[in-house]
Amino acid sequence: MSFAQLQKACVDCRPSSIRTYWANIKALARLAGRDDVPSTSSWLNAKLLKRVLAEPLNRSKRFTTAGVKAAQMYKIKKQDWVRAMSEVTDKYATQRRSGKRTAREAANWPEGGYKALSKLAKELHSEVDLLPNKKQWNTRDLYHFQRYLIVLFYSKHALRGDLADVRIKAPFANNWLKKAGGTYLLHVGRHKTSRAHGAIELRLGGAIKEALDAFLPQALKLTDHGFLLSTLRGSNKLKRQDMLRLIRNVTKDRLGKNIGVQIIRVLKVSDAAPEIDKAVALQKELGHSASMQQKYISRF
Predict the structure, then answer these.
(1) Same-domain pairing of 22 and 76
(2) Do the Cβ atoms of 102 and 95 come closer than 8 Å?
(3) What is the CA radius of gyration of the chain?
(4) Quick check: helix, strand or coil at residue 175?
(5) How far, in Å, CA of 177 to CA of 161, rounded?
(6) Which range marks the domain in which residue 134 is found?
(7) Is residue 171 reached through a cis peptide bond, with omega within 30 degrees of 0 on the bond before it?
(8) Which tens digit of pLDDT belongs to each residue from 177-197?
């Protein structure tokens, strides 16, 4: 089976979601002892499902979903995998609501929480802080500065992996970065929940703006693919999975923790927990939703 067949089967899925599903299907096949994704569905059996359910909850969630999507690719429905996915998803939601860290989160929680990423960004900046004074970079300079830029960005904004799909040159399409006055505007029009929540727009100022001021002119000179992020040689855009791997590798190397985007998102929300708790308490006191609460704010 192939990625193209999954694309045909998953007609309503976002391209980024399809890439994630395919990566997880391949990982599930490896768990089953297969080198490649088999051409028939016989490997999606009860023995494999039992093994998947013995995995930690977050991996069980990932693999049961992969099994359901693989069955969809084979144009069949595996009811036992569908039931297992539903049950695991409910358990995962219950765990998230409890506020208790998963085993993976506990093992990879950095000292200082979300602030550890800002500290790491400062460390990486110290290694490239002379580059802005260099008139002409090479692709290695670009890649090393890019590593700092990525960590700096995620120390301020906990997007999923959408940064890898951002364009800096026309045609801009759904996800793009443009200069907007004294800042930059990041527009993410296509993301996992864009149908429900619309586009994400972020004004990028401060240290990120300074980093982009140094990085973008060099990126536009050294690359032709039109995207913000590049491979080491600069000839191709940096794929989403490679950007995510870069984040995990640099946090593992510098912080001793294997921190991915999902944990970064949990870190940021956890860091804001006191403010969130106050907002929720106010909603309960006034008896209305968060959106209605915003309508009650008087700013002038």
Answers:
(1) yes
(2) yes
(3) 21
(4) strand
(5) 15
(6) 108-270
(7) yes
(8) 999 989 999 999 988 888 888
